[in-house]
Structure formats: C-alpha cells, structure tokens
Amino acid sequence: MARKKGAAENKSSSEVSRNFIDRGDYIEVVPPLGTIRMIQKGSAETPMNWHDAMEYAKNLKLGGFTDWHIPTIEELKTIYKIQKICGIDRSDEFWFWSSSTSSEDSNTASCIGFFKGENGKNNKIKSYGDIRCVR
Question: Residue ranges of the domains in the chain?
C-alpha cells in the first residue's frame, strides 16, 4: 500500500515559492509563517552592533510600513530555513542579529550565521552583524 503524502510533501518548490510575493524591497509571506508577514530582502549597508541594529529597525520604512523589527531568534531560524525559496538567499553573508537577548548573559544576543546556519551568541556592543527586519 502506498504511503499517503501530506500536503507539504505534495508541493513542488514552485508551488511553495508562490507563498512569497516579491514586493521590491521586501518579500510578502502569504499566508504568514507564524508572526512573519513580511521579510526585508536586503539588509543594512554595513554590519552593526546590536544596539545600532535595534535603532535601524525602529527607523526602517519599507513599502509604506514603519513597524519593522529585528526578528526573534525563532523568526530568524524560520527565515534561514526558507531563504532560498523566498528569494533572499545570502548564505555567504555575515551573522544576522535577532532581537533575543541571551538568557545567560544580558550583554549578548542570539544570532544565526547564514553561511552555515550556525546558532550563536554575540556581544551586543563589541560584535557586528547584519540585519534583516520583519513585520
């Protein structure tokens, strides 16, 4: 007896990519993935520390929206998993900041290295990383 395929297994990559609409500076996610409705395609022009990244997100305006934020570590993990099918593949890039402060040390924040998908924690002031905002 053949195993019945689930909905996710039946979707081809082109069908899956239809869930992501390129809006120029950002990707719209339809339907939203958890709390993620939109993902910034690019990032800030230069890497920055966590505090500057938070300020960057606070001042970001894309597509007429001003409520962009640095993703939580869980949102950032989701972005890493879908980066190639939604059109934001930058696997050779720097670490990306999350808004999640480390539970062990309030001077560090969780981040992900998109070059290998490694989870890490970097010093909020001394370390520099890239930023990809969500809303």
Answer: 18-123
Buried b (16+ CB within 10 A) or exposed e, 52-70: bbbebbeebebeeeeebeb
| 1 to 4, 55: CA distances (angstroms) | 9, 57
Distance between CA atoms of residues 118 and 40, nearest Å: 21
Report the residue count for the chain: 135
pTM score of the predicted model: 0.82
Q: Which is nearest to 36 in space by CA: 47, 45, 28? A: 28
- Which of 32, 132, 16 is CA-nearest to residue 73? 132
Residue at 48: amino acid letter? M
Strand bridging mode 108-113 / 95-101: antiparallel
Predicted confidence at residue 9, as pLDDT, reads: 38
pLDDT in tens, 84-100: 888 776 656 679 999 99
